[in-house]
Amino acid sequence: MRRSTFGVRRPAEHESEQWALAFSGGGIRSATFCLGVLQGLVKSAPPSPEVGGVAGRPENSAKSLLPHFDYLSTVSGGGYCGSFFGSLFASDRLDPTRKLDDRALAQQAYKVFEAEPPGRLRSNVVFDPAAPGKGPLAWLRENGRYMAPTGSGDMVYAMALAIRNWFAMHYVLGTVMLTAFTMLALIRALLIEYLPDSLSPPSYQWHEVALLQTAQCNYCATSIWWSPIWWLLLPLLALWLIPAGIAFWLTQPPEGGKVSVPAQWRSFAPESSFFIGLILCAIGMSGLSYLSHDWKRVVVALICVGVITIFGSVWHFMTTSTAYGRATISEQRVTLTRGLARGFLWLAAIVLLAAVDTTSQSLYANLSQVTGWLTSTAGTGAIVWIVRHLATTLAEKEREGLLSKIPVNAIITVTGLVLLFLVALFWSMLVMWIQWQGTAPNSELLTRLGSHREVLIVLGATAILALVLTWISSQFPGFLNLSTLQGLYSARLTRAYLGASNGLRFASNNAALRSVAEPAPGDHISHDEYYKNPLMPIHIINVCVNQNSDPAEQLVQRDRKGKPLAILPGGFSLDGKFCNFPRKDERSELDEELTIGEWVGVSGAAFSTGLGRRTTLGYSLLMGLANVRLGRWWRSGITSEAPDSRGKDVRETFKTQAYLFDELFATFYGTRRPLQYLSDGGHFENTSAYELLRQGRNVRLIVLCDCGCDPKYEFDDLANLARLVRIDFGIEVEVDREAATTEHLQDIFGTPEDFLPTHDNESGSKNATKCALLLKVFSSAQGSREIRKPDAYIIVLKPRLIPSVAIDLAQYRSTHPAFPQEPTADQFYDEAQWESYRRLGMEIARRVFGVEDEREAYRKALWKRVLISK
Question: What does the angle CA 813 – CA 823 – CA 409 come to, to the nearest 5 degrees?
C-alpha cells in the first residue's frame, strides 16, 4: 500500500520484498552524516521496473529512491536523524495551518530533504509549502551544539540540574549508610553497657579496648584506632570460608563410584573429619586444665583446628540435604564452590566496612572531625569532577594515545572503589560526630554523661530517624529516573530534532518559539501519533535491556549482558517477542508512556551505569557515584520473577534503594525484576541492522550507514552484527569481494582491507575512491554459498573522505586529521564541523546511487547485482 500510493514500482519478482535504511550509533556525527545521506537519496533515482534498466533523474522527491524504503531502523545517534525523518509524517506537524491527508503528508516529508544546502535560521523565515525543508533543516544546523546551543546559559542550567541531582542521589544513598553505621555504633555501645566486667580482670577492661569506645587520648593520639569490625573476620574464616573449603575435599565418591552418583551425608571422609575434630577439641579442653600457662596458646590453637574441622563436616552434611535440591556429588561440589564464593563476597564487604570504620574514627580522633570531613568531601569532589570530565572519553570503544597503553579498566575499578570508600567515610564520620557530640572522643565525656545510656539514647534516636528517612525515600521510586541526566538529555534531543519538525516555530515571527534555547509546545510527540501515518516507513528504535544476572541464561548473558528491545508501531519487541505496552490505570513516573523523544534519548544513553556487554563493577560504581547516569528504569510489564525470590519483601519495601544499588553494583536482572534498566541500543548492536535481519521481516535490501567511531577502519560493529545474526538467526553475512573487482563497481565498492589507513589509500591511489561495502546475506549457513544466490544484500556507506569532495571538506580534513572519524565524545559541533559531515553524507550517497548520465553503466551494474532474481 505504501509504495503503491507513490507509484513506486520494482521488477515484478521483487514487489513483495522490503527495503530498509539502517542508521547506526555515533552521536551527532551519525545524525548529521545520515541527514546528508537522506538528502542524497532524494536526488537519486530508483531502479527501473524493467529488469536491467535504470530510471532517469527523478522528477521530484516522491519519485526518488527514498520512498522505496519500507523500514527505518535506528540506534543511538542514528535515532536523532531518524526521529526527525519520521516526525515529518505526523499530521498537523510541519504545517499546522492545513489539514493534509496521509499521502500529502508523506509527499511533504520527502520534499523536506530537497532543501540544499540548509540555510541559516533567520527571524523572517516562515513555513513555505513550496519549500517545506527550509526552516527545519536550518533549525538542525543551528542545533549542532544540541546539548548547549546557547553556550553559557544552557551550561549553567545543565550544571544546576546536575548538582541538584547529585546531592539528591547521595542523600538517598546516605540515609542507608547513616542507618547502617548508626546501627553498628549502637550495637557497640550496647555491648559496652551490658557486657559483664567479670569476663576479664577489671584492671584490663579488655572489652572496652576491643570495642574501642573509650578511646583515651593517650591511646588513639599516637596510633591507629582499629575498628572492632575486624574481629568479624575470625568467625567468617573459622565457620564459613575454611570449612566450606574443607567440605569440598570431603565429597569423595564411594570406591569404584562416580561423581554422578547421589551424594550421601554419611560416608567415610566427612564422618572421619567430624570425629577427628571432636578428638582435637577434647584434647584441647583437657589441656587447658592440666598444662602450664606456656602451653595454653598451643592448646587454644588445637581447639580452633578442631572446631574448623567439625564445621567442615557440618558444611558437607548440610549440602547433602534435600533442601539444596542437589542429587549428585558433582552438583554438591558446585554448591560448595558457590557457597565459598559468597563467603568471599562477605569477606570483601567486611574488609571494606572495617576499613571505613577504622579510617573514620582514626581521622576523627587524630585530626579532628573538620579535617576528616574535608578529607572525604575533597577527595569525593575531586574524583567526581574528573569522572564528569572524562566520562565520555572513558566510554569510548577506541582509545587513542596514552589511554590505549594503560590498563584503563583496572584504573576505573580501583577509582570506583576509592570513591565508594570516600562516600562511606563521610557518613561514618557523621555518626562519630553525633556520638561524641562534635568533640574529640575522650573518657571525660563519658564521666560527665555518667554512663553510656545517654549515648545509647542519641544513637537509638538517630538510627530510627535515619530508617524513617530511608523508608520515606523508598516510597518515591520515580526518583530513580528523576535523579539521572536522562531527562535533560532527552529534552535537548527533543528540542533539537523533533523541534525541527514542529511547524509552530515557523508559522510566525514569534522570537521565543524561534529560539534554539527554548522548548515549544508540540516538540514532544506521542508514540501513537508518531506511528499513525501508514505511509511512513516503519521506524524501529533499538534499545538495550541490561541483563547480567540470570541463572537460566548465564552462558549467553555473561558475554552480552543485555537483550535487544525494539520500539515498533503498536508496541515493542523484547528479544524477538512482540508485546503491547502495558495498560495501567494509575501511572507512576516509572510506568508512564514515553514520548518518541524520550525513546530516542534512551536509545542514545551511551554513558551510564549499564553498558551492555561492556558493563563492569568498577565502571558502574564510578559513573553511579558521580551520577553520570543516562539510562532509564522502565516497567515493561514482563517479569519472570519467582514468587519466592530471596529478599523480595525487602526489595519491595525499599524499592528505590534496591534498584539504585543494583545500578551502582552492576547487577541487572532484566525481566527477573519488575523494572528493567534501559540504555543505548548500541550496547547490544550498534549498526541497527540486527532487527532488520530477524526472520519474518522479508528485508531484501538494506542501506546501512556505519557511523560508529572507527578511526582504524576495523569494522568492529559490522563484525559484531555478523556474529550475532549467525548465532541467533542462523544467518551468514559476508563481504561480496567480487563486487570490489567488478568493472564499474570497483571504483565505489571495496573490501575492509581497502579502507585500512595506509599509504596505499592516499588520495590518488586506486582505493581512495572506495566508500562502500557490499555484503551478501544468506538465510542459512547450510550448503555451498558459491553456487547459492544471496537472500539479501547490505550496502554499507562508510564515512570516508573521497577525492573530488568540496573544497571546504578538504580544508576541514587538513585542520582536523581525525575527520570523518572524530570521537563520539565530541557532541558539540560548530558550523564547519556540522556542514562537513552533512555534505560528506550527501556526496557519498550520491556517489553510490547518483544519477549522472556518465554513470549509467555503473547504476545498471549495481541494480543488476543487488536485484538479481532469487
Answer: 145
| Helix/strand/coil for 563 | strand
Contact indicator for 749, 740 with CB cutoff of 8 Å:
yes
Interior angle at CA 722, CA 717 and CA 725, nearest 5: 120
> Which amino acid makes up residue 297?
R
Q: Is 518 exposed, middle or buried, given 0-12, 13-18 or 19+ CB atoms closer than 10 A?
A: middle
- Kindly calculate the radius of gyration of the chain based on its CA atoms and give it in whole angstroms: 33
- Average pLDDT estimate for 690-705: 93
Phi, psi of 431, rounded to the nearest 5 degrees:
-65, -40
Exposed, middle or buried by CB within 10 Å (0-12, 13-18, 19+), for 265?
middle
C-alpha span between 584 and 91 (Å, rounded): 27
Q: Report cis status (omega within 30 of 0) of the bond before 67.
A: no
Q: Look at residue 522 in the predicted model and tell me its pLDDT.
A: 85
Supply 13's cell numbers.
519478482
What phi, psi does 234 have (nearest 5°)? Answer: -65, -55
Measured CA to CA, the distance from residue 606 to residue 457 in angstroms comes to: 48
Q: Are 733 and 706 in contact (CB under 8 A)?
A: no
Cα 765 from chain centre: 41
Which of residues 224 and 576 earns the better pLDDT score? 576
491 φ, ψ (degrees, to nearest 5):
-65, -40
* Phi and psi at residue 334, to the nearest 5°: -65, -40
Q: Please, what is the Cα angle at 145 between 33 and 821, to 5 degrees?
A: 40
- pLDDT tens digits for 87-145? 999 988 888 888 888 899 999 999 999 988 888 777 666 778 888 888 899 999 988 88
CA nearest neighbour of 599 among 625, 557, 632, 629? 632
**Which residues, 6 or more positions from 2, have their beta carbon under 8 angstroms from its beta carbon?**
70, 534, 535, 537
Rounded alpha-carbon distances, angstroms, from residue 127 to 136, 501, 506, 540, 717: 9, 11, 5, 29, 40
Which set of grid coordinates corresponds to residue 415? 577509582
CA atoms within 13 A on the CB side of 179: 14
Whether 546 and 624 have beta carbons less than 8 Å apart is answered as: no
pLDDT band at 218 (very low <50, low <70, confident <90, very high): very low
Burial class (CB in 10 A: 0-12, 13-18, 19+), 404: exposed
Residue 711 burial (CB < 10 Å; 0-12/13-18/19+)? middle
Alpha-carbon distance 489 to 507, whole Å? 27
307-338 CB burial, b ≥16 within 10 A, e <16 = bbbbbbbbbbbbbbeeeeebebbebbbebbee
Q: Could you tell me where the DSSP H helices lie in 395-507? A: 408-435, 443-449, 453-474, 479-482, 486-493
Contacts of 831 (CB under 8 A, 6+ apart): 141, 144
Task: Tell me how far apart the alpha carbons of residues 33 and 800 are, in angstroms, rounded to a whole number.
Answer: 11
Residues in the chain: 870
In this predicted model, what pLDDT tens digit does every residue of 805-864 receive, in sequence order?
889 999 999 999 999 998 887 788 889 999 999 999 999 999 999 877 667 888 888 988
The DSSP bridge pattern shows strands 562-568 and 538-546 to be: antiparallel
Distance of alpha carbon 26 from alpha carbon 410, whole angstroms: 26
Helix axes 268-290, 242-249, angle to 10 degrees: 140
Please classify residue 788 by burial: count the beta carbons closer than 10 Å to its beta carbon, then call 0-12 exposed, 13-18 middle and 19+ buried: middle
3-state SS class at 704: strand
Q: Quote the CA–CA distance of 482 and 491 in Å, as a whole number.
A: 13
Residue 368 has pLDDT above 70, yes or no: no
* Longest distance between any two alpha carbons in the chain, whole Å: 110
Distances in whole angstroms, Cα of residue 745 to Cα of each of 13, 736, 742, 857: 24, 11, 6, 9
Q: For residue 596, what is its C-alpha cell? A: 518518541
The residue type at 418:
V
pLDDT value for 52: 58
